[in-house]
Amino acid sequence: MGLPTPKQLVKIQTMSTRYPIPGGEARVELQVKNSRFIGRAGYTPTVEEARAFIDRVKVEEPNHSHAVYAFAVGYGATVTHGMSDAGEPSGTAGRPALAVVKGSGLGDVTVVIARYFGGAKLGSGGLVKAYTETAQLVLAELPLTEQVAYRTVAVNLPYHVYEQAKRLIESHHGHIEAEEFAVDVSLRLIFTVDDLPDFEAALAEATNGQVSVETIED
Predict the structure, then answer these.
(1) Domain limits, CATH 3.30.70.240, in the chain
(2) What pTM does this model have?
(3) Residue 146: what pLDDT?
(4) Could you tell me if 43 and 22 are in contact, meaning their C-beta atoms sit under 8 angstroms apart?
(5) What mean pLDDT, rounded, does the chain reach?
(6) CATH class of residue range 149-217
(7) How distant, in Å, are the alpha carbons of 8, 136, 139, 209, 218 from that of 191?
(8) C-alpha distance from residue 68 to each of 58, 72, 96, 215 (Å)
């Protein structure tokens, strides 16, 4: 089993340890009465990265008249939202885009919609519709993956239960990061936060409660 990447070793969410996130970026284009709406979306696990994504899109979509954005960083009880109408009439751009982001169920995502004004005014209702549809289209094109929280733990156990412990680690989808053989066997293990409680219970049952699990880091 491969070692989780640094991006997978994320902070523990208080409401859920797994949630859907962007697995890449997406770009769509919508034309409404000669105005072009370019929708961009990507993975932004921090507010700083959301701001950086917004700035990058502004550079990569030059000469736009407006660059509306909405983001959700985190998930559940720990989510941070942000939005901007970017000069459009209040409530006609950032708010509908954010409503789409919230309704998507995604975490760690930023949507930027660059508008190229085509000369015809769309009115408040037309703007809400255009920004809503662009946000919906770009999120529909976005590749998805899952954010998973991991926990690193330490286990010290006698030699006679080593092989049994290894089988339990494997059956509960754990990863042995390090082993040290001295008076006892010391293991450094990585589990998803969802899998760890079942492993702890199985290990306690197999060793009559003589072996415990110590959390090192999340």
Answers:
(1) 149-217
(2) 0.69
(3) 87
(4) yes
(5) 89
(6) alpha beta
(7) 12, 35, 31, 20, 10
(8) 10, 14, 10, 43
Q: Are 112 and 30 in contact (CB under 8 A)?
A: no
Asked whether the predicted pLDDT for residue 13 surpasses 80, the reply is no
| Cα 47 to Cα 50: distance, rounded to the nearest angstrom | 5
pLDDT over 80 (residue 68): yes
**Is-contact 68 60, C-beta < 8 A?**
no
Domain 18-146 indexed as CATH 1.10.3470.10: no
Q: Which two tokens stand for residue 210?
A: 């003589």
- Between CA 114 and CA 131 the distance in angstroms is 10
